[in-house]
Amino acid sequence: MGDYAVGMTGHTEHGLLHSALFYRSEHEYVDSVVHFVSEWLTKACPVLVAVPGAKMVRLHSVLRRVADDEAHEVVLTDICQVGRNPGRILGWMSGFVQRHRGRPVRIIGESMWPGRSSVEYPACVQHEALVNLALEGQDATCLCLYDAVRLDDSVLADARLTHPLLWQDGAHRRSAEYAVDVAVERGNQPLQTHPAAVTFAVGKLADLSGARQWCAWYGSLLGMSADRIADLQLVVTELATSSLQRGSARCRLAFWHHDNHVVCEARGGAHLADPLVGRRPPSVGEVSASGLFVVNAVADLVRTYTSRAGTTIHAYIRLDRSPGKAA
């Protein structure tokens, strides 16, 4: 694994630079973030730092001494809120890039924080792989942080799979294990219906009214708030509509309770050939993609499995609006 031609802060060519940094202490974590932000600000680059809330608090006072808010553009965000659903992060990153179109942007993120559930994990791997496709050709530097002490070795191995570059010893090194297609497919795992699920079939758009009423009853039964029931109804509407628009004769909906969430499953529709559908803002006329983008924006987790036989989507909606937590 040889050294890359330029260091991160010495990058001068246009294009995506996507790397992973494995940290082993809080001191290394803070020093690394502050170092990169300081370097980028000297080049007048807009900087986005998206890390778990507890770490964001620790970084805030340090970064405040580095950046003059009036002279530099640094956005500090709690990734546990904006990125609880990994399928939402790409749209949010793309929005930051577009707001600064024509300028190089720099993004530090920690989407795979310790405490992510096994259900969320495949979506995290898929997200990191898709960054390479979604931001290809953009003048963007993305540095992804991984806790090498608290995360399993398998997680670090997947980071090497999804990141073309690793930041080690003050320089970029190519990841010999990088394989974006393998990583995308690794997140495309078959999804099973819960044996205790209740079901509802949507064969035409006129059936959506009944589906919304039915899921409202189910959410009420589990103690969902009115706001969360409205979110569930929106997700059901968009999932079923997107399925029918993709040529499905029928969309089969299924619902069950899992770990303080209502899981809404939609089965039907054609194969999703583009893995970025629903993860980045859709183009004008992409009606089905627009619906899936809304689902990712509203749901707390979205898992997708697609094959030539069709597509299955699981959308998780928390019973309440409690934010995610991470150390």
From TrEMBL:
<dbReference type="InterPro" id="IPR050267">
    <property type="entry name" value="Anti-sigma-factor_SerPK"/>
</dbReference>
<protein>
    <submittedName>
        <fullName>Anti-sigma regulatory factor</fullName>
    </submittedName>
</protein>
<dbReference type="InterPro" id="IPR025847">
    <property type="entry name" value="MEDS_domain"/>
</dbReference>
<feature type="domain" description="MEDS">
    <location>
        <begin position="18"/>
        <end position="164"/>
    </location>
</feature>
<dbReference type="Pfam" id="PF14417">
    <property type="entry name" value="MEDS"/>
</dbReference>
<dbReference type="InterPro" id="IPR047718">
    <property type="entry name" value="RsbA-like_anti_sig"/>
</dbReference>
<dbReference type="InterPro" id="IPR036890">
    <property type="entry name" value="HATPase_C_sf"/>
</dbReference>
